[in-house]
Amino acid sequence: MKSIAKLLFGIAVLCAPLAAPSYAQDALKAQVLSYGVFTSKFAAKDDKNRRDVVKDEKLVSQTATIVAKLGTEFGFTFRIDGAPKGKEVELRVVTKFPPKGIKDEQNDTLFETESKIAVRAGEVSYEGFQFETKGELVPGEWSITLYAGETKLAEQKFNVVLK
Fold it and tell me: If you write DSSP's letter for every residue of 31-51 in order, what string do you get?
């Protein structure tokens, strides 16, 4: 009987790392640090997600009202806590557009986009959008939401206006 108990204890100890990640996704928290109009520099193209990777983000104006103009970039900076500092955390980013949607480069109508990014816990990260085509200049409510799995960590809404 003791050997069965030891065996079960040994199996439980060996399986424990498989059963739980080094941090629980539901323990993750996101703090929005700044939001509004930004400038940044193009760093690379992420081939998997067809996204631009940028660097040197700088807040130009903290505002939730964005004037739709080609070249304007908007978004927010944030920090993920709840995992060991420096630990890479995968997030899902969902950007929702106004009800009529936007047109992409292929003239398809998009109502939202979804992609995955990796950020480091405890470090400032940035997520944003830049108007690159006329089909993206759509007024209304836009939102950028961060998820860890299915858990919403942060959401920033913007009111895009035409001038």
Answer: EEEEEEEEEEEEEEEETTTTE
